[in-house]
Amino acid sequence: MKKAPERLTSLLDECKTLAFDLNFNYAKQWKAKSKYRLLVGYLPIYVPREIIHAANGLAVGLMGVGDRKQIIKGDAYYQSYICHLPRGIIEMALDNNLDNFDGFLFPSICDCVRNLSGMFKLAKKGKFSRYFDYPQNFEKHIGGTFYRELNETIINDMFKINDMKITTQHLNASIALYNHNRDLIETIYNIRQEFPWRLSAVDIYHIIRAGMVINVEKHNEMLEEVVNLISEDFGEPMDNIRVVISGSFCEQPPIGMIKSIEMAGCYIVDDDFMLGSRWIQGRIDDTTNDPLNEIVEAFLTKSAPSSAVYDVPHPKSARLVQQVRDRGADGVIFCAASFCDPALLDRPDLQKACDDAGIAHINFQFHENTGQFKVIKEQAGTFSDSIKLWV
Amino acid sequence: MSNPKEAIKEKSMVIQKEMLANLFTELSNAKANGKKVVYTFVPGNLTELILAMDMLPVYPEINALQSGMRKKSGGYIKDAEKLGFSEDVCTYVKCDIGMMLNGNIGPTGEKLPEPDLLLLSYTGCFTFLKWFENLERLYPGVEIAMLHTPYQEDGKITEDQISYMVKQLKEDVIPKMEKVAGKKLDYDRLGKMLDNAAKAEDLWVKVLETAKNRPSPIDSYFAGVYYMGPLNTAFRGTEEAVHYYEELYKEVTDRMKLGLCPVTPEGEMKEEKFRLVVEGPPNWTNFREFWKIFYDMGAVIVASTYTKVGGLYDQGFRHEPGKPLESLAKYCMGCYTNLNLPQRVDLIEHYIKEYKADGFLINSIKSCNSFSAGQLLMMREVEQRCGIPVGFIESDLVDPRYFSYANIKNRLESYFQMLGQRKVIIAQEEAAV
Ligand code: SF4
Ligand code: SF4
After folding, report:
1. In sequence order, which residues have a C-beta less than 8 Å from that of residue A387 and are 6 or more positions away?
2. Ligand 1 binding residues, C-beta < 6 A
3. What is the Cα gyration radius of chain B?
4. Ligand 2 mean position to B232 CA, how many Å?
5. What is the tens place of the pLDDT at every residue in A62-111?
6. What is the DSSP letter of B42?
7. CATH number of residue A210's parent domain
8. Do A180 and A91 have their domain in common?
9. Does residue A357 sit in the same domain as residue A258?
């Protein structure tokens, strides 16, 4: 068996360190290089990072603390029946992990994230903190106009801090960089679909999560290198089934859980872990005189169907079934954070869609700091075995 | 635990009961009479639009809470869980879905008609969106209109937000309603309804404000949830609702003049010992027992946030016949759960001061992230700003598994003890001055 290239191993180590640096040292050092630079933290799932980039800012994804930080203060802010993600975020804010951040965006994904935006306001964190209330109406002159105004408000918030005007040229350049970023991520998923043994699900997780906390230029360089390295043949296939993970778009499952699922015999060939990085399906035009309009248009017409978007005109169940087909997956693992209304309220319908399409599925719930994976491993193992028996 | 006695009924209650009975009769005859039925939510409801097009509204939240009060919700929730809904999610949704799975029998024992339109007024709660997505699948092919109400994230309603909502109403929601109703919206008729709405709102505010009196003639929470019914649901905009609030106001002012305390299910409270402001919805499965803990201790709720989920009229908002769609938009955006956390804290602080409350209590609801997420920080802020004892209890809306009578009673008793001690200390200090 040919071994993985050494460079890949060191690159993956770098990504792993970046992905879980809860002090965001890279981003803070990046900002320290110029007084005109900004750091804007954002919660899952999606914000148009292009506008932050074009305003000389770095959008930093705040994906929770996982099992990497002990929650002490955060638990005093949340009742036991609220998911885990916001406690970690508030813990970081109170522990000064987020010092030097200029602003915070809280996308419209659920009422916990919405109310967290108010908690940041009450705690006076950042020079601005906004609930990013993206429209649930997808008509260009209705929801589109509103979305444009929303983006302009944030552009204005950033302008007030660093006095940097976004030009057409800047924004087009930022769009191009993120187009390339999404292309590269897609390429990695595509290669992995065919050769899942070349990169583990945990590796790909670290690679993408690293991109949430560094500048897109550097992330693109890393992704290009990864694409090159995994285009070569190495490693050895295992007798695993292929699964798609659904429901982990906000609070992130612990790494140990992702590892356990694969070790139990399930290659994860697609997921919604960091859906925000892959939210826009396809490219945004980076050649027009009104790039903000292109960003709006992309939101209206190319957003990934997800639990954050009004479903009736965009059925996410159809997307999941299609995703399973496209990836040649054998089944779906529904994997939602406990107390996550958006994921858990969608689950019955998604399960039904799988049943109707003859797709096998199982279901787990987790907290980001779950430490025991024995049961999950056993269940994933049984799932894998049952599929192998029947397929 | 003693058995609750038969509730004492005032004239306004009788009127409301009749209004509801008529509505449910109309609903059960809806299909036969060719009336269209609209399922919609309480916060940010568009009742005047529905009624102005001669359609009948059904409010799934109200069905859920009534199922809770009739002790049916536990079974409904379990049935929804069998269908795959997690134990963790909002129990209103599960109760509603369970009720449908069990034949959609309404509070009068008759089957509720199926919807002709799902009107998703998505105000103040993300779960509403999920709820209606699920309903849409239970009634495949039904017309569905969605009105996205932007959140007051910056503590104010902006022109952009109003224009976004008016455009949705004009170009999407109203045309869909017209299609289902089979008739055009008559703006004159709508104007008249909004005028009636404003009249009822004036009266409702006057009722609420009687609680500033000592003793308060009303309980703004436990009785408040009944008082707010006609305005928050199927009757806003009607003459009947105006009549109901005239009668209610008269009753309440009569009581006030006589220096009487609130009416409870077991008669009149004899003494007002503690005045409280309460945040959060009540529990419905054990509503009477829950209320009894308070009135047995002489505690009166003088202001509550829950009675503002259907509109914040006491802060000045009124429906305006001259600007129908703008005012509907502002109405939707102004509901309590659409306020940001700093606004909510400010409002509570205002209530505590304005209504001279002795304490502030949160009933934190397991189901409801819209209310509950952030309440612990709100509690600390309020405590800091107002310097009064704060209390915190937990229950659920309609899931009986999450109402622990003994636990809640213990907590409340200690809390009232603390309030009592504080009163003694304050009295001693005042005597010393
Ligand atoms: S995990 Fe779910 S409930 Fe929690 S913040 Fe994220 S979307 Fe909201
Ligand atoms: S989360 Fe709260 S506001 Fe939303 S539907 Fe449930 S109980 Fe109602």
Report:
1. A241, A330, A331, A360
2. A 83, 85-86, 109-110, 112-113, 250-251, 337, 340-343
3. 21
4. 15
5. 999 999 999 999 999 999 999 999 999 999 999 999 999 999 999 999 99
6. S
7. 1.20.1270.370
8. no
9. yes
